[in-house]
Amino acid sequence: MRVIVQKYGGTSVADVECMLKVRERVLKALDKGFKVVVVLSAMSGETDRLINLANKWSKRPDPSEMDVIVSTGEQTSVALFSMLLKDCGVKARSFLGFQIPIQTDRSFGKARILDIEHEYIFDILKNYDVLAVAGFQGCDCERRITTLGRGGSDTSAVALAAALDAEMCEIYTDVDGVYTTDPKICSQARKIKKIAYDEMLEMASMGAKVLQIRSVEFAKKYNVPVHVRSTFTNDPGTLVVQEDKSMEAAMVSGVAYDKDQARITLVDVEDIPGSAAAIFEPISRANIVVDMIVQNPSRESGRTDMTFTVPKGSSEDTLNILKKIKDKIGAREILSDTNVAKVSVIGVGMRNHSGVAAIAFSALKKENINIMIISTSEIKISCLIEEKYTELAVRTLHEAFGLGEMQDVSSEDKAQCRNE
Ligand code: ADP
Ligand code: ASP
Ligand code: MG
User: CA-to-CA distance for 37 and 308, rounded, in angstroms?
Assistant: First the structure.
Protein backbone atom coordinates (compact mmCIF):
# COMPACT_ATOMS: atom_id res chain seq x y z
CA MET A 1 0.00 0.00 0.00
CA ARG A 2 1.54 3.36 -1.08
CA VAL A 3 0.60 6.03 1.41
CA ILE A 4 1.12 9.77 1.14
CA VAL A 5 0.27 12.32 3.82
CA GLN A 6 -0.84 15.79 2.72
CA LYS A 7 -1.46 18.60 5.20
CA TYR A 8 -3.40 21.72 4.29
CA GLY A 9 -3.22 24.83 6.49
CA GLY A 10 -5.95 27.30 7.42
CA THR A 11 -5.73 29.49 4.31
CA SER A 12 -5.86 26.38 2.10
CA VAL A 13 -9.26 25.37 3.53
CA ALA A 14 -10.60 28.89 4.11
CA ASP A 15 -13.72 28.45 1.94
CA VAL A 16 -15.36 26.08 -0.52
CA GLU A 17 -13.29 27.34 -3.50
CA CYS A 18 -10.05 26.63 -1.64
CA MET A 19 -11.29 23.21 -0.54
CA LEU A 20 -12.14 22.35 -4.14
CA LYS A 21 -8.50 23.09 -5.05
CA VAL A 22 -7.45 20.77 -2.23
CA ARG A 23 -9.80 18.12 -3.61
CA GLU A 24 -8.14 18.41 -7.04
CA ARG A 25 -4.75 17.77 -5.47
CA VAL A 26 -6.02 14.78 -3.53
CA LEU A 27 -7.63 13.33 -6.68
CA LYS A 28 -4.28 13.66 -8.50
CA ALA A 29 -2.54 11.70 -5.75
CA LEU A 30 -5.25 9.01 -5.98
CA ASP A 31 -4.65 8.81 -9.75
CA LYS A 32 -1.02 8.07 -9.01
CA GLY A 33 -2.04 5.07 -6.94
CA PHE A 34 -1.63 6.53 -3.44
CA LYS A 35 -3.89 6.09 -0.46
CA VAL A 36 -4.10 9.64 0.85
CA VAL A 37 -4.16 10.70 4.49
CA VAL A 38 -5.21 14.34 4.41
CA VAL A 39 -4.56 16.34 7.57
CA LEU A 40 -6.55 19.55 7.76
CA SER A 41 -6.30 22.69 9.88
CA ALA A 42 -9.24 24.79 10.96
CA MET A 43 -10.48 27.31 8.38
CA SER A 44 -8.31 30.43 8.63
CA GLY A 45 -9.18 32.67 11.58
CA GLU A 46 -11.36 29.98 13.20
CA THR A 47 -8.94 28.95 15.95
CA ASP A 48 -8.47 32.62 16.97
CA ARG A 49 -12.25 33.06 16.98
CA LEU A 50 -12.70 30.05 19.26
CA ILE A 51 -9.97 31.23 21.64
CA ASN A 52 -11.58 34.69 21.86
CA LEU A 53 -14.95 33.07 22.51
CA ALA A 54 -13.56 31.09 25.45
CA ASN A 55 -11.84 34.21 26.78
CA LYS A 56 -15.20 36.02 26.82
CA TRP A 57 -16.65 33.32 29.05
CA SER A 58 -13.82 33.04 31.50
CA LYS A 59 -10.84 35.15 32.63
CA ARG A 60 -8.66 32.03 32.87
CA PRO A 61 -10.43 29.35 30.80
CA ASP A 62 -9.90 25.83 32.06
CA PRO A 63 -7.14 24.44 29.78
CA SER A 64 -8.81 21.08 29.21
CA GLU A 65 -12.12 22.68 28.21
CA MET A 66 -10.22 25.17 26.06
CA ASP A 67 -8.88 22.20 24.08
CA VAL A 68 -12.39 20.83 23.64
CA ILE A 69 -13.41 24.17 22.14
CA VAL A 70 -10.42 24.94 19.91
CA SER A 71 -10.31 21.44 18.46
CA THR A 72 -13.76 21.97 16.91
CA GLY A 73 -12.26 24.12 14.13
CA GLU A 74 -10.48 21.10 12.66
CA GLN A 75 -13.57 18.92 13.20
CA THR A 76 -15.58 21.21 10.92
CA SER A 77 -12.86 21.18 8.24
CA VAL A 78 -12.59 17.39 7.99
CA ALA A 79 -16.36 16.89 7.85
CA LEU A 80 -16.80 19.50 5.10
CA PHE A 81 -13.89 18.10 3.11
CA SER A 82 -15.09 14.50 3.39
CA MET A 83 -18.47 15.63 2.04
CA LEU A 84 -16.76 17.17 -1.01
CA LEU A 85 -14.86 13.95 -1.66
CA LYS A 86 -17.92 11.75 -1.27
CA ASP A 87 -19.81 14.06 -3.67
CA CYS A 88 -17.46 12.96 -6.42
CA GLY A 89 -17.56 9.29 -5.53
CA VAL A 90 -14.34 8.97 -3.52
CA LYS A 91 -14.31 6.43 -0.68
CA ALA A 92 -13.45 8.85 2.11
CA ARG A 93 -14.22 9.51 5.75
CA SER A 94 -13.30 11.97 8.46
CA PHE A 95 -11.31 11.11 11.58
CA LEU A 96 -10.88 13.03 14.80
CA GLY A 97 -7.77 12.61 16.94
CA PHE A 98 -9.47 10.56 19.66
CA GLN A 99 -11.03 8.15 17.13
CA ILE A 100 -7.66 6.85 15.89
CA PRO A 101 -6.47 7.53 18.65
CA ILE A 102 -3.55 9.94 18.46
CA GLN A 103 -2.34 9.43 22.01
CA THR A 104 -0.73 12.43 23.70
CA ASP A 105 0.50 13.45 27.12
CA ARG A 106 -1.73 15.53 29.39
CA SER A 107 -0.32 19.03 28.72
CA PHE A 108 -3.49 20.69 27.49
CA GLY A 109 -2.78 23.35 24.88
CA LYS A 110 0.73 22.08 24.18
CA ALA A 111 0.42 18.30 24.26
CA ARG A 112 3.07 16.02 22.78
CA ILE A 113 2.19 12.99 20.67
CA LEU A 114 3.17 9.71 22.36
CA ASP A 115 1.69 7.10 20.05
CA ILE A 116 -0.52 6.62 17.00
CA GLU A 117 -2.57 3.46 16.47
CA HIS A 118 -1.17 2.88 12.97
CA GLU A 119 -2.48 -0.68 12.59
CA TYR A 120 -6.02 0.59 12.97
CA ILE A 121 -5.40 3.21 10.27
CA PHE A 122 -4.02 0.56 7.89
CA ASP A 123 -7.11 -1.52 8.57
CA ILE A 124 -9.40 1.40 7.74
CA LEU A 125 -7.38 2.16 4.61
CA LYS A 126 -8.33 -1.28 3.26
CA ASN A 127 -11.85 0.09 2.79
CA TYR A 128 -11.19 3.78 2.17
CA ASP A 129 -8.97 5.67 -0.25
CA VAL A 130 -8.82 8.96 1.63
CA LEU A 131 -8.87 9.65 5.35
CA ALA A 132 -9.44 13.27 6.33
CA VAL A 133 -7.79 13.56 9.74
CA ALA A 134 -8.33 16.55 12.01
CA GLY A 135 -4.94 18.13 12.67
CA PHE A 136 -3.80 19.73 15.93
CA GLN A 137 -5.61 17.28 18.21
CA GLY A 138 -5.23 14.04 20.11
CA CYS A 139 -6.38 12.58 23.39
CA ASP A 140 -4.76 11.73 26.70
CA CYS A 141 -4.86 8.47 28.66
CA GLU A 142 -8.28 9.40 30.07
CA ARG A 143 -9.62 10.07 26.55
CA ARG A 144 -9.73 13.79 27.19
CA ILE A 145 -9.19 15.88 24.08
CA THR A 146 -5.82 17.61 23.86
CA THR A 147 -4.32 20.05 21.35
CA LEU A 148 -0.74 20.30 20.18
CA GLY A 149 -0.05 24.05 20.33
CA ARG A 150 -0.50 26.68 17.61
CA GLY A 151 0.47 25.37 14.20
CA GLY A 152 0.12 21.81 15.56
CA SER A 153 -1.44 20.34 12.41
CA ASP A 154 2.05 20.22 10.89
CA THR A 155 3.04 17.92 13.73
CA SER A 156 -0.07 15.76 13.31
CA ALA A 157 0.84 15.32 9.63
CA VAL A 158 4.50 14.44 10.12
CA ALA A 159 3.71 12.12 13.03
CA LEU A 160 1.12 10.29 10.89
CA ALA A 161 3.60 10.08 8.01
CA ALA A 162 6.15 8.56 10.39
CA ALA A 163 3.63 6.11 11.89
CA LEU A 164 2.41 5.00 8.44
CA ASP A 165 5.87 5.00 6.86
CA ALA A 166 4.48 7.29 4.16
CA GLU A 167 6.51 7.99 1.03
CA MET A 168 6.31 11.72 1.62
CA CYS A 169 4.70 14.24 3.92
CA GLU A 170 3.53 17.23 1.88
CA ILE A 171 2.80 20.42 3.79
CA TYR A 172 0.59 22.66 1.65
CA THR A 173 0.41 26.29 2.72
CA ASP A 174 0.07 29.87 1.46
CA VAL A 175 3.76 30.21 0.51
CA ASP A 176 5.47 28.00 -2.06
CA GLY A 177 8.21 26.80 0.25
CA VAL A 178 10.59 27.72 3.03
CA TYR A 179 12.27 31.03 2.29
CA THR A 180 15.58 32.48 3.45
CA THR A 181 13.40 34.65 5.66
CA ASP A 182 9.70 35.47 6.01
CA PRO A 183 8.72 36.64 2.50
CA LYS A 184 5.99 38.80 4.08
CA ILE A 185 8.61 41.15 5.57
CA CYS A 186 11.54 40.88 3.15
CA SER A 187 10.95 41.16 -0.58
CA GLN A 188 14.47 39.83 -1.26
CA ALA A 189 13.65 36.51 0.46
CA ARG A 190 14.49 33.55 -1.77
CA LYS A 191 12.97 30.09 -1.79
CA ILE A 192 15.31 27.42 -0.39
CA LYS A 193 15.18 24.30 -2.57
CA LYS A 194 16.50 21.94 0.06
CA ILE A 195 17.09 22.45 3.78
CA ALA A 196 18.58 20.14 6.44
CA TYR A 197 16.37 19.00 9.34
CA ASP A 198 18.68 20.74 11.83
CA GLU A 199 18.54 24.05 9.96
CA MET A 200 14.77 23.82 9.66
CA LEU A 201 14.57 22.99 13.34
CA GLU A 202 16.52 26.14 14.21
CA MET A 203 14.48 28.23 11.73
CA ALA A 204 11.24 26.97 13.30
CA SER A 205 12.53 27.36 16.88
CA MET A 206 13.73 30.87 16.09
CA GLY A 207 10.29 31.92 14.88
CA ALA A 208 9.77 30.87 11.24
CA LYS A 209 6.23 29.62 11.71
CA VAL A 210 6.00 27.91 8.33
CA LEU A 211 6.53 24.59 10.19
CA GLN A 212 5.80 23.87 13.84
CA ILE A 213 8.99 22.95 15.74
CA ARG A 214 7.71 19.56 16.89
CA SER A 215 6.90 18.56 13.31
CA VAL A 216 10.55 19.02 12.32
CA GLU A 217 11.70 17.07 15.40
CA PHE A 218 9.48 14.17 14.29
CA ALA A 219 10.66 14.42 10.69
CA LYS A 220 14.29 14.29 11.80
CA LYS A 221 13.81 11.48 14.31
CA TYR A 222 11.92 9.23 11.90
CA ASN A 223 13.63 10.44 8.72
CA VAL A 224 10.38 11.57 7.09
CA PRO A 225 10.98 13.55 3.88
CA VAL A 226 8.87 16.71 4.08
CA HIS A 227 7.93 18.82 1.07
CA VAL A 228 6.67 22.32 1.93
CA ARG A 229 4.74 23.77 -1.00
CA SER A 230 1.87 25.94 -2.09
CA THR A 231 -1.73 24.79 -2.41
CA PHE A 232 -2.27 27.40 -5.09
CA THR A 233 0.66 26.84 -7.52
CA ASN A 234 2.34 23.78 -8.99
CA ASP A 235 5.92 24.96 -8.40
CA PRO A 236 8.13 22.57 -6.49
CA GLY A 237 8.60 23.80 -2.95
CA THR A 238 11.25 23.08 -0.34
CA LEU A 239 12.48 19.64 0.62
CA VAL A 240 13.32 19.19 4.28
CA VAL A 241 15.73 16.26 4.41
CA GLN A 242 18.94 14.86 5.93
CA GLU A 243 21.94 17.15 5.77
CA ASP A 244 24.32 16.62 2.84
CA LYS A 245 27.70 18.09 1.89
CA SER A 246 26.25 20.72 -0.48
CA MET A 247 24.44 22.41 2.40
CA GLU A 248 27.66 23.40 4.15
CA ALA A 249 28.82 25.54 1.23
CA ALA A 250 26.65 28.48 2.30
CA MET A 251 27.77 30.36 5.41
CA VAL A 252 24.19 31.08 6.44
CA SER A 253 20.92 29.63 5.10
CA GLY A 254 18.27 31.83 6.64
CA VAL A 255 17.19 34.59 9.01
CA ALA A 256 14.29 34.15 11.43
CA TYR A 257 12.58 36.42 13.92
CA ASP A 258 10.38 35.92 16.95
CA LYS A 259 8.33 38.73 18.43
CA ASP A 260 6.84 36.45 21.06
CA GLN A 261 9.53 37.27 23.60
CA ALA A 262 9.54 39.01 26.98
CA ARG A 263 12.73 39.96 28.79
CA ILE A 264 12.88 39.52 32.56
CA THR A 265 15.74 40.74 34.75
CA LEU A 266 16.38 39.96 38.39
CA VAL A 267 18.66 42.73 39.66
CA ASP A 268 21.49 42.05 42.12
CA VAL A 269 20.88 38.41 42.87
CA GLU A 270 23.35 36.84 45.33
CA ASP A 271 26.13 35.16 43.30
CA ILE A 272 26.20 31.87 45.22
CA PRO A 273 25.68 28.22 44.24
CA GLY A 274 21.97 27.48 43.89
CA SER A 275 20.76 30.95 42.85
CA ALA A 276 20.07 29.94 39.26
CA ALA A 277 18.38 26.72 40.36
CA ALA A 278 16.19 28.66 42.82
CA ILE A 279 15.03 30.88 39.95
CA PHE A 280 14.57 28.38 37.14
CA GLU A 281 13.21 25.35 39.01
CA PRO A 282 9.83 26.92 39.92
CA ILE A 283 9.57 28.41 36.42
CA SER A 284 10.14 25.01 34.87
CA ARG A 285 7.63 23.40 37.26
CA ALA A 286 5.05 25.86 35.91
CA ASN A 287 5.81 24.51 32.41
CA ILE A 288 7.16 27.89 31.24
CA VAL A 289 9.75 27.69 28.47
CA VAL A 290 12.82 29.84 29.14
CA ASP A 291 14.82 30.77 26.09
CA MET A 292 17.88 33.07 26.29
CA ILE A 293 19.67 33.35 29.65
CA VAL A 294 22.46 35.77 30.59
CA GLN A 295 24.26 36.09 33.87
CA ASN A 296 27.18 38.46 34.30
CA PRO A 297 28.46 38.59 37.90
CA SER A 298 30.26 41.63 39.25
CA ARG A 299 33.67 40.55 40.56
CA GLU A 300 33.62 43.00 43.47
CA SER A 301 30.08 42.89 44.86
CA GLY A 302 29.43 39.14 44.84
CA ARG A 303 26.11 39.85 43.16
CA THR A 304 24.80 39.34 39.63
CA ASP A 305 21.95 40.40 37.34
CA MET A 306 20.09 37.43 35.89
CA THR A 307 18.34 38.19 32.58
CA PHE A 308 16.31 35.73 30.53
CA THR A 309 13.45 35.56 28.05
CA VAL A 310 10.10 33.75 28.12
CA PRO A 311 7.12 33.81 25.71
CA LYS A 312 5.11 37.04 26.10
CA GLY A 313 2.05 35.09 27.26
CA SER A 314 4.06 33.59 30.14
CA SER A 315 5.60 36.83 31.40
CA GLU A 316 2.88 37.57 33.97
CA ASP A 317 3.01 34.05 35.41
CA THR A 318 6.82 34.26 35.52
CA LEU A 319 6.70 37.58 37.39
CA ASN A 320 4.26 36.13 39.92
CA ILE A 321 6.60 33.19 40.55
CA LEU A 322 9.61 35.48 40.91
CA LYS A 323 7.85 37.80 43.36
CA LYS A 324 7.49 34.81 45.68
CA ILE A 325 11.22 33.95 45.62
CA LYS A 326 12.65 37.48 45.34
CA ASP A 327 13.65 37.77 49.00
CA LYS A 328 15.03 34.25 49.20
CA ILE A 329 17.53 34.92 46.40
CA GLY A 330 18.27 38.43 47.62
CA ALA A 331 17.17 40.19 44.41
CA ARG A 332 16.83 43.97 44.72
CA GLU A 333 14.34 44.41 41.87
CA ILE A 334 12.48 42.54 39.11
CA LEU A 335 12.28 44.23 35.70
CA SER A 336 10.30 43.13 32.66
CA ASP A 337 10.05 44.30 29.07
CA THR A 338 7.71 42.93 26.42
CA ASN A 339 8.87 45.27 23.62
CA VAL A 340 11.64 42.94 22.53
CA ALA A 341 12.19 40.52 19.65
CA LYS A 342 14.76 37.92 18.76
CA VAL A 343 16.45 37.83 15.33
CA SER A 344 18.56 34.83 14.39
CA VAL A 345 20.87 33.81 11.57
CA ILE A 346 20.96 30.07 10.91
CA GLY A 347 23.06 27.69 8.84
CA VAL A 348 24.93 24.39 9.09
CA GLY A 349 27.73 26.14 7.12
CA MET A 350 28.57 28.09 10.31
CA ARG A 351 30.46 25.05 11.55
CA ASN A 352 33.09 25.59 8.85
CA HIS A 353 33.04 29.36 8.42
CA SER A 354 34.49 31.82 10.91
CA GLY A 355 33.43 35.45 11.32
CA VAL A 356 29.67 34.88 11.06
CA ALA A 357 28.98 36.62 14.39
CA ALA A 358 31.14 39.60 13.41
CA ILE A 359 29.24 40.06 10.13
CA ALA A 360 25.90 39.89 11.97
CA PHE A 361 26.92 42.35 14.69
CA SER A 362 28.40 44.86 12.19
CA ALA A 363 25.22 44.71 10.10
CA LEU A 364 23.10 45.56 13.16
CA LYS A 365 25.53 48.28 14.20
CA LYS A 366 25.27 49.89 10.75
CA GLU A 367 21.56 50.41 11.43
CA ASN A 368 22.24 51.54 14.99
CA ILE A 369 20.34 48.58 16.46
CA ASN A 370 21.36 47.76 20.01
CA ILE A 371 21.81 44.10 21.00
CA MET A 372 20.49 43.27 24.48
CA ILE A 373 21.26 39.54 24.66
CA ILE A 374 23.27 37.24 22.40
CA SER A 375 22.93 33.48 22.36
CA THR A 376 24.61 31.00 20.05
CA SER A 377 24.58 27.34 19.11
CA GLU A 378 26.72 25.44 16.63
CA ILE A 379 24.48 26.52 13.76
CA LYS A 380 22.78 29.76 14.88
CA ILE A 381 23.39 33.20 16.37
CA SER A 382 20.47 35.00 18.01
CA CYS A 383 20.25 38.60 19.17
CA LEU A 384 17.56 40.14 21.34
CA ILE A 385 16.71 43.65 20.13
CA GLU A 386 13.98 46.28 20.52
CA GLU A 387 10.82 44.94 18.88
CA LYS A 388 10.32 48.02 16.69
CA TYR A 389 13.54 47.22 14.78
CA THR A 390 12.62 43.62 13.95
CA GLU A 391 11.82 44.05 10.25
CA LEU A 392 14.81 46.34 9.69
CA ALA A 393 17.12 43.88 11.44
CA VAL A 394 15.84 40.94 9.40
CA ARG A 395 16.30 42.78 6.09
CA THR A 396 19.76 44.03 7.10
CA LEU A 397 21.00 40.58 8.15
CA HIS A 398 19.47 39.01 5.03
CA GLU A 399 21.44 41.43 2.88
CA ALA A 400 24.66 41.16 4.89
CA PHE A 401 24.83 37.42 4.21
CA GLY A 402 23.87 37.75 0.51
CA LEU A 403 20.84 35.53 1.02
CA GLY A 404 18.89 37.06 -1.87
CA GLU A 405 21.32 35.56 -4.38
CA MET A 406 20.58 32.43 -6.42
CA GLN A 407 21.18 28.90 -5.19
CA ASP A 408 21.54 25.84 -7.42
CA VAL A 409 19.70 22.54 -7.10
CA SER A 410 20.60 19.11 -8.44
CA SER A 411 18.35 17.12 -10.79
CA GLU A 412 18.21 14.41 -8.11
CA ASP A 413 16.55 16.85 -5.69
CA LYS A 414 14.12 17.96 -8.36
CA ALA A 415 13.13 14.32 -8.89
CA GLN A 416 12.40 14.00 -5.17
CA CYS A 417 9.68 16.66 -5.43
CA ARG A 418 7.63 14.01 -7.11
CA ASN A 419 3.91 14.26 -6.56
CA GLU A 420 3.40 17.42 -8.72
P1 ADP B 1 -0.62 27.42 7.50
O2 ADP B 1 -1.86 28.10 7.95
O3 ADP B 1 -0.70 26.89 6.10
O4 ADP B 1 -0.12 26.41 8.49
P5 ADP B 1 1.24 29.38 8.50
O6 ADP B 1 0.68 30.76 8.53
O7 ADP B 1 1.30 28.63 9.78
O8 ADP B 1 0.50 28.56 7.37
O9 ADP B 1 2.73 29.41 7.90
C10 ADP B 1 2.99 30.02 6.65
C11 ADP B 1 3.52 31.43 6.89
O12 ADP B 1 4.81 31.34 7.52
C13 ADP B 1 3.80 32.22 5.63
O14 ADP B 1 2.64 32.88 5.18
C15 ADP B 1 4.92 33.17 6.04
O16 ADP B 1 4.47 34.47 6.30
C17 ADP B 1 5.43 32.60 7.36
N18 ADP B 1 6.88 32.43 7.36
C19 ADP B 1 7.72 32.87 8.36
N20 ADP B 1 8.98 32.59 8.06
C21 ADP B 1 8.97 31.95 6.86
C22 ADP B 1 10.00 31.39 6.02
N23 ADP B 1 11.28 31.45 6.37
N24 ADP B 1 9.61 30.82 4.86
C25 ADP B 1 8.31 30.75 4.50
N26 ADP B 1 7.31 31.26 5.25
C27 ADP B 1 7.63 31.85 6.41
N1 ASP C 1 -5.74 25.52 13.87
C2 ASP C 1 -4.56 25.51 14.69
C3 ASP C 1 -3.93 26.89 14.72
O4 ASP C 1 -4.46 27.83 14.15
C5 ASP C 1 -3.58 24.46 14.27
C6 ASP C 1 -3.01 24.64 12.89
O7 ASP C 1 -3.54 25.37 12.06
O8 ASP C 1 -1.98 24.01 12.60
O9 ASP C 1 -2.91 27.08 15.35
MG1 MG D 1 0.97 26.64 10.30
Answer: 42
